[in-house]
Amino acid sequence: MILMSVHYNEKKKKYYYRMRVKNPNFMIDGKRYINKQSDEYYTSEKKAKNAEALAKAKRDDDQNIGNLLTIETTCMEYLDIQKRAVRNNQVKVSTFQLLHHVLTKLVIPKLGSIKYSELTTENIESFQKFLLENRKHSTASKYFDKFLENIKFCKRKYHVKPPYIPPFPRKNDFKQFGKERYIDIDNFKIAISFAEPKFVLVLSALFYCGLRVGESTSLTWEKVDFEKQGLFIKDNIYPANRKLFPEYNGFKHNDSPKTESSVRFQPCPPSFWKILLVEYERQKSIPGFKSTWYVFGGATFFTPLAVRYNVKKMLRNANMPELTPHELRHSYATHLTNEGVDSRVIAELMGHADESELKRYAHIKPDKKVEALKVFE
After folding, report:
1. Any transmembrane segments, and where (predicted)?
2. What mean pLDDT is predicted for residues 142-165?
């Protein structure tokens, strides 16, 4: 029996056609293809066949166009569609801004010139590696999902089958890309020039003093020793659930740092101490100044989230790999290690109970390893 694509509806006394298309619910019902019925009905069998031919021709034309389009063109087209969705309140503005950043700042510069039909698995793996080398794993994974949105859009509109897309590497597999997550002092001096002026001091404290975020944001002027040029680390600020602890307004000011060994006196490098004194004189000139004011922020403290955001913004503006505030603290330990400072001294400065904790993130530069081998000459 020959299956006809044009059928007759007895109730409406009209004709319609069916086309074999891919099933969007394949993962639910297990059917890879389904017969999709036309949206309209036609008064004659000939009109139904003509409409079916036009629909197939349009699908083939879209596929031919998809073979010619570049990744850049498809990205811009998808952004236009999402922009209209934002105006119709179908997509959040923040979601669109993230998509716009990923496609215009990462995908297009890296893959924009490649034709969509010529995109290969190697290109996709290379893009995954690029994201992992320049972003945190969680951020890189989120960015890659946005790139996949564009691929799915092209597949849906132009009926062009994409290449095999390898799964995004798990967090434990990140080390295979061989990227140590720290910044050296030369690059930090460049990066800090791109920071927001009011956050320069707190970001410098993370790198030059090795403070934790909560330790730095909770620091008040009464904890600063102007004679010994150092800081007394005794407090900590950490996020608190707003529903469970409404009195904390999202952040709890704790009277003790992370561990007992974290309570310490932290001497400051001369370069950092100079800008700290400048900030002290500025706040001191403000009417109502008190010693209980925060070193970084004044009458109110900087939230840990604000510090994290400004670290990311600073490095992005400087076109450097993304790091977290805690990784600036790691960079402090790495710099001291590469300068030959004793590990017990570094453990004291970092507020660690045991120097073995430094092994997790005090990275040795490759040139230091080469210098060490000179003892055999």
Report:
1. 293-311
2. 84
